[in-house]
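Section 5.1 Outputs to date
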Amino acid sequence: MKKTLALLLSAMMVLPAASIAAPKDKTGNNDLNLKQNKSEWTLVWSDEFNGTEIDRSKWTYDIGNWIVDENGNGITSGWGNNEKEYYTDSSENSFIDDGKLVIKAKKEQVTDQFGTYDYTSAKLKTKGLFSKKYGRYEIKAKLPTGKGLWPAIWMLPEEDKYGTWAASGEIDIMEAWGSSPHKVAGTIHYGEGWPNNKYTGKEFELPKNRGIDSWHTYALEWEPGELRWYVDGELYQTQNKWYSKGKDNAANFSYPALFDQEFYLVMNLAVGGWFDGDPDETTKFPSQMEVDYVRVYDLKKRDYREPVEPVAGPVVLPDNAKQPLEDGNLVYDQNFEEAITDVSMPGDELNLKYWNFVHLPDFGGVGSISVQNLDGTNFAKTEISNPGSALYSLQMIQNISLGNGGKYKVSFDAKSTAARNMMVKVGAGAEGDWVKYSNEESFQLSDELKTYDFTFDMLNETDIAARLEFNLGGNGTNPVWIGNVKVEDITGTPVDEDATKQPLPNGNHVFNGTFDQGGMDRMMYWNFSVGEASASASVSENTRELEVAIEDGGSHPEAVQLDQKGMNLVAGNDYKLSFKARSDEPRKIQVSLMNVDDTVNYSGMDTIELTSYMEEHTFDFTMPEDVSDSEARVVFNFGGEDGDVYLDDVVLLKTSNTPDYGDIDLYPLKNGDFSDGFSSWGSYVHYDAGGQVTVENGEAKVSIGHEGNETWSVLLEQPNLSLAKGVVYELSFAARSTKERKAEVTVENAQYHRYFEKVIPLSDEMQQFTYEFTMPDDDIASFKMLLGKNALSPVGAHDVFIDNVVLKVRDATAEEEPVSTPGIDNGTFGEGTAGWTAWWGDQWGGYAVGEMVAENGELKVAISQVGGASYSPQVFQKDLLFENGSSYTVTFDARADVPRKMNVNIGKELSYDPWFISYMPTKTVDLTTEMKRHSYIFVMTEETFNDGKIVFELGNILDGNAATNVYLDNVSIIKN
């Protein structure tokens, strides 16, 4: 498990000190506005710890050091926080002493099935025994000091009602740094499931003479839509901005979710971890955390406050911030006219105003950045020699200013030379401990220039030096062009709820079918209309189901109607609509799928009989073979009868899967027979292994001295395979080994998620392997053959051979035979000079003198004077088609009456500086008096272009520029 993954899987995450601020105007204990009114509360649950043993009816324990799944399999160590302790329920680590709970951390070794740990401690919790929604939580405690000690009092949801951590939330009542004994912190964790979790919070400075090792009372008051933190009765922060979004949701859950469900209490003393680092020689063991009491209260003199949904107002940035430009863009130098600052060594400072290119040596990324004009617009082009070990190995960064409470839209244009991923995010820098303001958005780039965008809410404190990051590492060596970058404040801009809706990750075409998302009315994306009837629609916080209260149903079913627009229905596919419904009295409703103007009914009108029981109803339909509709409506008609109707869990699924193969690469893996050498392939040999990869006799040969300690210590791979959701792929290859061994074959994405994996036996006989798998998502993946440590290791020195690797869509038509590139004309000069042009120079390149003729079936360039440049004179042919990602073989015969040199260029002619973009490196040919054949292979890495040009330069070339007759014949360019 990688360190970053272990960190982010935690159920109790690190609170970066730099991201939170001490309370303002802290003047002492006399300000009654900062004191809580304890008379409002009545005690409902407590533990005074007056017995002789811990009350096991109130407290249970977490045991161990690992987060495990439901089957006890380890997910990550250190509780996801790199903690070093092993939690026990032993009376040595937690006990009652003189009316106080003691949690003791000891330096002692303990071993379990996962490993050995140097410390023990305890984590107590009330899960399954006591949980509560809202109230006052008060704990009196005395905490230990010392580097690496991390005492905490916090809360987690009894049920993960809104999704995995932190979509269902976490409330930290108090956390303390053992190495900073005069401060504590309170924090909330929220947002989406890891890694798109967020947090906000603040620190509180304790009196210098009464640090955390003195008795203090820590309290949290929690009401709908508001949380308040106190130390010794002093209010030091209030939080009322948060959100929660499920992985299959179109919008956030309706406020005040996620903090509107029952949470249980947790108390623990961690040792080590990201929060305060590991203990050092000054840390004393044993160390203990003492708790005098835990008390939970309910309001008794008033009702809980009504939640007030935060309203986004105009964002006003401080005077010292980077203010938006006239067009509202927060990004400066959008056209890359200023120098891009190169940050290549630790300690190098970012340019705080303009663009930076960051490639620090610690992460192994190697590349360069330049500015290139594409159709009149400047783009930053990043060339990548080594993608490094992480997404952030290579970065384009600009600092921008963001205001608390703002909603922002990031947009940009980008492309590569082939399919690849790129991660973009907005967050804090080191001074903010890298807190994320946006999600880590992953974009699939192609060789086509496209516009990409995402939005995020800035719920953290205003940051005038936030970082917009384009993370270009860890995803292969294909270059990336980025331009037209904008960050705009879109606070208050409404969402187009009727726009076309792409299916959610779970396949549902209906947005907010559970009536628990969007504004506090919970009806986002739905439209309710009433004709000559009297009815209303609402969703209560408790039931979270739609209630249609009908006083007068009118004379026809359409008189009371609920609909959602933007259903994206695809021709020829089968669909299933399901929903739950009931009514106060038995009655009927109608359901259908219509076009936007009600002139076409795709599903037929289905009449549903409702009873007083909430029941699921379903019906199926098939779209016409020749009709797709991205604006279709799902319609519920409730009119024509009286009686209230209740609706929930509306789901529309596409139950057939006929992909549009016109948009799918039928053969995503290239050069599987290694006929073009190692083109499109990559390899890796870890430092703990020994080996090299070559192509020999048309096969990939992996010569392995020793396998190393991991399966991936030696690997052969082809990255950047563009795979399509729902498509069945066939993978086949031949392989052998000079010594018997195992090999692991995978198809996986950049985050190491595997869509296919298989362990295969290899022997000295070449074997054919064939498999099938179905892609669950659109993704950019890699084919990998892992040739490191295996079940038969150590194998010793041996060679592995791989050939004829094919990854194709099952039943795909055969790949076409190589054909001449469209546009090549008269390469044999049988039609004279037709299709060919000679150019004899200008005032900048110098003038040449001569003529071009066809003679004896050859092209003859009779040169009596060369110009001052290599390209004066030249002969060329244009209108050639070169496709991105394709490999081409260039072949021609050439000679000269007097030995001399000739340059061959293939590329794109421009009408502005630099005048020509090369598609292959310039080839310099030594011409002799003997007609010889010359051949070169290149891969088109630029965008597909149908006006390409081949140029034979016959001008002033160093050490070979004789003015003589040059002959060309049999010119061809073949697409491999």
